[in-house]
Amino acid sequence: MPHEPTPPEPFRDRLPTSHERMSGRPWDASYHDGPAPWDIGRPQPAIARLASAGAFTGAVLDAGCGTGENTLLIASLGLSVVGIDVAQTALEKARQKAVHRNIHAEFLSADAFQLATLGRTFQTVLDCGLFHTFDAEERPRYVASLASVTEREGTLYIVCFSDLGPDTGPHPISQEQLREAFNVNTGWSVSAIERDRLETRFHENGAPAWLVTVKRV
Known about the structure:
By secondary structure, this protein is α/β, with parallel strands linked by helices. The protein is built from six helices and seven strands. The protein has a seven-stranded mixed sheet with strand order 3-2-1-4-5-7-6, with helices on both faces. The protein starts with 17 loop residues before the first helix and ends with a strand.
């Protein structure tokens, strides 16, 4: 039986994602020459509204945390938060911010497709800008990985680029794709899909986005 090819550096012990293959760059490289396109230097407005409304409860996971702005906002509320990413440069920036702001939050290097290796579960999970980077073949693996660390009746919030333009971001997602990915057979139930905006360094007023609420069933 043939062996899978060994991922070259800088992918270490994982295969590159579809986004990395398409761009020709690892996630970490996005942080080498100044801020990444999605790194706006503050929490996303949609996440700030959720936080103000008390949407985050219990232990919280921020999947694809980048330099940690959303993670640190949630942690500042006194919640236990873990931010994970594969970009080591981003994680180091996030840790420096936590020290500078005197906010306690964990930032760990972890593969979004293998979240069970964290060895813990969470009542609330956040995905802000990660889901839409995965192609149709990767989404089932990611959805199953999220399920492995989300408590029963826990909540997942997703903010992703919408396919309703104009001027949407790369990798836009439709409502149908979201509902298909999180259908009841996957252990999830979509509670709400609302129109929102996702700010980037290239969208002055934000790009069209979905704010999705998913329950673990």
